[in-house]
Amino acid sequence: MSSMKEASIFLDYVGDTPRMRILQYLIEGRDFDYTLTDLLHAGVSWGTLNTLVPKLLALGIVVKTRKIGRATLYKINQENVAVKQLITLYDRLLLKKLEQVEQETRKQVAVSA
What we know:
The chain is mainly alpha-helical. It has one domain (9-112): Arc Repressor Mutant, subunit A. It has helices spanning 9-14, 18-28, 36-39, 46-58, 81-112, and strands spanning 62-68, 71-76. The termini are far apart.
């Protein structure tokens, strides 16, 4: 997972808000489920997390997957139409960035050869 200190091409496009940070974190780890404590790694405060997660649940963007002890685990809802679009955008932006890096690397190799 990317560090919040690094620039995020996804957040550059959609806006660097707490909601989008949580969504980016869940999209990056879309095959896993997370506790609220895990979601703190998205770079948001506990209070913000406790405000946003119920809203994301109500919108069907996030779903509860299971309980372990007292902890509830959450996952991005890949069946949600809006989530599908966000995942597509995230993946395309990442591919675009990788292609740019590859082109720059090729240019540097060509210059040094």
